[in-house]
Design brief:
Distance between the termini: 54 Å
Shape: globular
Number of helices: 5
Order of helices and strands: HHHHH
Largest sheet: none
Amino acid sequence: MRIWMALGAPLAAVLLSSCGEPAPNPYPEAARARFEASCPSDSAVCTCTWDAVTRALTYEEYEAALQRFRETGLMEPAITRARTKCIERNRE
C-alpha cells in the first residue's frame, strides 16, 4: 500500500498542476507595444486582457484575428471572451 501512495503522490501533483491556466504563448515585443497603444498597461483590464489573449491564442492566430477584424469588423470570440472576463473582474 505504501508503494502505491509513494508513486501516486507525484502523479497526482503532475495531474493537478496541469489543471491550471496554460503558459502564455510567445509574442514579439512589437505586438505588445501595438496592443498597448490602444490599451495602456497601467489599466488592470488591459493587462488582464493581454495576459488572457496570449494564453488563448498563438501570435499567428492573434494576427489572423486582427486581420479578420480589419476586414469584417468581427472580433475573434476568444479575444471577446478574454476582454469581457477582464472587464468583469476589474471594474474600473
